Amino acid sequence: MGSFTFLDLRDRFGITQCVFNRTNVDNLKEKMNVYHKLKKLGREFVIQITGIVKERLKKNKKRFTGEIEIVSQTLNILAKADVPPFKIEDDTDGNEEIRLKYRYLDIRRSPVKKQLLLRSQVARVLRETLWEKEFCEIETPYLIKSTPEGARDFVVPSRMNPGQFYALPQSPQLFKQILMVSGMDRYFQIVKCFRDEELRAHRQLEFTQLDCEMSYVTQDDVLETFEDLINVVFKKTTSYELPRIKHMTYEQALRDYGVDKPDLRFDMKLIDINHILKGKGLQLIDKAESILAIKLGKVCLRGGLFSTNKKLKNLEKLVKSQLIKASGLIWLKLIDGKFYSSFKKFIDKEILRNWAQEMKARNGDLICAFAGTSKNIREQMGTFRSEIGKQLGLSHPSCGLSAIWIVDFPLLKFDEEKGRYVSMHHPFTSPKEEDRFLMKTTPDKVRAKAYDMVINGFEIGGGSIRIHEQHLQKELFQLLGFTEKEIYEKFGFLLNAFKYGAPPHGGLAFGFDRLCTILGSMLGLDYNSIRDYIAFPKNNQGRDSMIDSPNFITIQQLKEFSFTSFK
What share of the chain is helix, strand, coil (3-state, %, to 5)? Predict the structure, then answer.
């Protein structure tokens, strides 16, 4: 603009306007030097400027540095740059895969940068708060031993011990328990963990968790300590104060919401309507073990989410989709005092009226019901409730926060494929004292001293009071089908440690990546998955697109591990 040249300079803190006025440069040689360099500048060049910070006449309130500008005097080009493959702007034109391939460019964009800076802030707040609570930070090893009863391990061949393997830790569980035996009574670690399992929006092959353990504590002690910790994190990063977190039993969560991690920002409870529809001559319903219904408020009024027959047809398709996998949908809607139902031709009008009254239906409401086995339809309806909550905008970050402790999980569940009991959480979880007598007769009735923190329908953290008695730990291993030999081969080091006196202990681990996404959503930072809060994440196929990993290794490397081929 005449003798003025403006450029935007980006650093970690945002974008700052720099102004070059050639008439203000006294030295003619320097004036021409700056002029030629300005003409060479391109997008994403790395530069060095000296100048004076001044107040801007026309301020830009959308920028953090929008009230000032740099009146620049010298310019140095430190590195030139090619034109990037996508726009380095908040609203970029690059799809996710290309942005993951050029992740170092994506991080330059303000949204990604803010997410990573929030992650750093959360880590600092957690550390400071735990240090104040007299926790000590201790590192545990990454090359450990593969143990059963968890997800699939990542394994690492040992060159020095041919044919043998390390495993990467799914969590530091056993090491932190041994630290309690060692007398390190309050431990924490922000630690990387590894699980070779299918990827989802909230799951990565490698992830970070805040891992904590305490000695001489009850379940209430642990919940109070970490509820306070989470409240501090929310206050210091979002200025939001969590209300007192209520407790809900696992059984109640499944009964009312169909899942053990319900989003309580909206109601939509599951209602048993067996007594309304069963025995009315409908073969499909009479054969079903259970019928559950849920009420969607005012969605059938003009302009509502399911106000037309076409929209109801789409809802029926959703119910039968791979997401929900229900056999079909029974629906009832109330419009201006009239009842409309998918079963209207087969059900007496009085039955429809009773059904509507049972659900406390009002004008414009839609009632949806599933029929089938009790276990299946609760799971299906829990997924359905969550999906409808999203479609109605009831689970958007702007809807606030809802946190809850889920307690009294079953200690064990029967695995039909394995033909034996498996741990609901892990095999080091202590049973409730009043249920221990059931372990030999009805193990599936034993409740555990286990707990999960659920925020906005996501499991953010979970833990338990651990077994610290050698005989009880052996008894549980035996219930899980381990022989005496297998017990000592896999867990002998833990049982031997217990012989020398183990204090009662318990702990908890928070999913650090998930916690950051919740905090970010409260600050208006959008996200599609926890990948957005990880500096160098894997894609949906478990690949690192930037470095092209995993990849093949050479025959020479294989020979070093005494391998020449893989089957």
Answer: 35, 25, 40
The pLDDT value recorded for residue 263 is: 95
Domain boundaries of the chain, sorted by first residue? 4-79, 112-251+403-533, 266-394
Q: What is the pLDDT of residue 29?
A: 66
Q: From 464, 543, 533, 529, select the one nearest 171 (Cα to Cα).
A: 464
> Can the peptide bond before residue 243 be classed as cis, meaning omega within 30 degrees of 0?
no
In angstroms, the CA 225 to CA 517 distance is: 22
Query: Which element (helix H / strand E) includes 252?
Result: helix 250-257
CATH for the stretch 266-394: 3.30.1360.30
User: How many Å is the Cα radius of gyration of the chain?
Assistant: 30
Query: What confidence score (pLDDT) does residue 24 get?
Result: 60
Low-confidence ranges of the chain (pLDDT < 70): 2, 22-31, 149, 344, 563-567
For tokens 């953010």, what's the residue? 460
Strand partners, 246: 404
3-state SS string over 137-166? ECCCCCCECCCCCCCCCCEEECCCCCCCEE
pLDDT digits (tens, 9 = 90+) for 385-397: 999 999 999 988 8
Count of Cβ atoms closer than 10 Å to residue 187 Cβ: 25
Q: How many H-runs (helices) and E-runs (strands) does the chain carry?
A: 16, 21
> Which pair of tokens denotes residue 535?
């500096």
**Nearest-angstrom CA–CA distance, 220 and 538:** 37
Secondary structure (3-state) at 522: helix
Cβ atoms within 10 Å of 541's Cβ, excluding its own: 7
pLDDT in tens, 282-317: 777 888 899 999 999 999 998 899 999 899 999 999
Topology of the domain comprising 4-79: OB fold (Dihydrolipoamide Acetyltransferase, E2P) (2.40.50)
Encode burial over 73-93: b for 16+ CB neighbours within 10 A, e otherwise: bebeeeeeeeeeeeebeeebe
Per CATH, which fold does 112-251+403-533 belong to? BirA Bifunctional Protein; domain 2 (3.30.930)
Contact 374, 339 (CB under 8 A): no
- Encode 490-502: b = buried (16+ Cβ within 10 Å), e = exposed: bbeebeebbeeeb
Strands 186-194 and 136-137: parallel
d(C-alpha 269, C-alpha 379), whole Å: 13
Joined tokens for residue 466:
């651990």
> Taking the complete model, does pTM exceed 0.85, yes or no?
yes
- Give residue 27's pLDDT: 63
**Amino acid, single-letter form, for residue 521:** S
DSSP string computed for 17-44: EEEEEGGG---HHHHHHHHHHHHH--TT
